[in-house]
Design a protein that fits this description.
The chain is of the alpha/beta class. The protein has five helices and twelve strands. The strands form three sheets. Strands 7-6-5-8-1-9-12-11 form an eight-stranded mixed beta sheet, sandwiched between helices. It has a two-stranded antiparallel ribbon with strand order 2-10. A hairpin with a 4-residue loop joins strand 11 and strand 12. The chain is globular, with a radius of gyration of 16 Å.
Length: 201
């Protein structure tokens, strides 16, 4: 069984998006800050290949090869227009939503829509992933998964940007401090520092 991870590119002041879904040009600048090309696994994607440092390229390739399924919320699904039909990582995507879209089946090889909550969404993703890893999208999905004790690892790609406001990686956790082990991985890229922490359960 693989691990369940959540993470995102994050500004120094803890945001994964600016107000009204802005700031991505600054947050994701590191994806084009190097000389090594790393294409997305799905050949049909419109997402361009990354051009990153050698150290970042090695990490991206390793992590992308390990993913077996993803968990995202309906907001991201709609915001990306369902990535044109399949996620760029070329793995099935579990979408947690109150109301599945009318223009897609409840389940196919690209998307599975779950309405029963984060536990059911992660369980379905783990079933799909088999021995592969499950990635939970940052923001609300990550917060719910962390609060429910479902995460094994948290990944932060820290960038030298201050957004001032926006969407935190983990918001509204309440007064429940959580201790992490690590960093169990620390890699310096160009314009980004990759940090990975293990969740202590």
């Amino acid at each position: 069984m693989g691990k369940v991870s959540a993470g995102a590119t994050m500004s120094l002041d803890g945001y994964i998006a600016g107000p009204d879904d802005t700031g991505f040009d600054l947050l994701f600048k590191w994806y084009s800050a190097g000389e090594v090309e790393v294409p997305m696994p799905y050949a049909g994607t419109t997402v361009p290949a990354s051009r990153v440092s050698p150290a970042t390229a090695e990490l991206l390739r390793k992590e992308m090869a390990g993913w077996g399924a993803l968990v995202v919320g309906r907001h991201l699904y709609d915001f990306t227009n369902a990535w044109g039909g399949r996620h760029p990582l070329d793995v099935p995507t579990v979408v947690l939503t109150h109301r599945p879209p009318d223009d897609r089946p409840q389940s196919d090889e690209n998307f599975v829509f779950v309405t029963e909550g984060i536990e059911a969404a992660v369980a379905k993703a783990k079933e799909i992933a088999g021995d592969g890893n499950v990635a939970v999208n940052g923001g609300q999905m990550a917060r719910q998964a962390l609060a429910a004790g479902l995460l094994d690892e948290i990944g932060i790609d820290l960038v030298p940007v201050i957004l001032g406001a926006g969407t935190p990686l983990f918001a509204d956790l309440g007064h429940h401090p959580m201790e992490l082990e690590g960093p169990i991985l620390l890699i310096e890229g160009t314009g980004v520092t990759h940090l990975r922490y293990r969740v202590i359960k």
